[in-house]
Amino acid sequence: MAARTSKIKLGTGVLVLPLRNPVVTAKALGSLDVISGGRLVLGVAAGWYAREFDAVGVPSSSAGAFSSAIWTSSCVSGRKSASPQGRRVQPARGGHGAAHGPAPPAARADRGYVDAVLKRVATVGDGWLTYFYTPESFTKSWQKIHAFAKEAGRDPLAHLTNQLAIYVGRNREETEKDMRQWLSTEWDTAAWSESTIEHAIHGSAEQCIEQLRPT
């Protein structure tokens, strides 16, 4: 896609970093950003879904640690930290780089739920990506991010995205059952978050448009 296009953005939504080798990930993403001419918008998160960590044999307690130093430093040392998989990262040449700067744009765009994550988004992120938020919940959380950013002396974020499930059919009654079944079996929402399947946009094209207007 990067080689055959020239305008569209390429992004992740989201990449759970602790599940992946940090050096290999940085190399791959840096290459993609260069190949696309700087069109990579990287959405990342620490992860919260325990089954994902169990599936790849990574302790969920490792969630969180990732640095853009792998893109910006000439040498990265692993003496003080271990990889998410529990193996120490050996000192290695860094500076893998991106197309238009040391790291891809929005390199720390988190999928945020709780205040601690929203604060991290506001203070070190370039954007915010969440999913399954109603317009009311999105607005409430964005106001928190804006306040955290202002407190830290930062400008508002450049990238704001709310991932929504959309199903266009004949009408809301016809699409209700299928939409709920799909969301409840194929997706997960954290019970302690604002994320909810009630955000779903579904119905006729006209009904979907009306539901999207507040977003």
What characteristics describe this protein?
two-stranded parallel ribbon, 7 helices, TIM Barrel
Structure explained in plain terms:
With 215 residues, the protein is α/β, with parallel strands linked by helices. The chain has one domain (10-212): TIM Barrel, CATH 3.20.20. 35% of the residues lie in helices and 13% in strands. The strands form 5 sheets. A two-stranded parallel sheet has the order 1-3. The protein has a two-stranded parallel ribbon with strand order 2-4. A two-stranded antiparallel sheet has the order 5-6. α6 links the parallel β9 and β10. The radius of gyration is 19 Å and the shape is globular.
The major sheet is characterized as: 2 strands, parallel
- Going by CATH, the architecture would be Alpha-Beta Barrel
Helical residue percent? 25-40%
Radius of gyration: 19 Å
Q: How many helices?
A: 7
| Strand line-up in the sheet with most strands | 1-3
N-to-C SSE string, H for helix and E for strand: EEHEEHHEEHEHEEHEH
CATH-defined superfamily: Luciferase-like domain
Strand content: 5-15%
- Helix/strand-derived category reads alpha/beta
Unreliable stretches (pLDDT < 50, length at least 5) are 78-85
* CATH hierarchy class name: Alpha Beta
Mean pLDDT: 80
The CATH topology: TIM Barrel
Quick one: overall form?
globular
Q: How many domains?
A: 1
Number of strands: 10
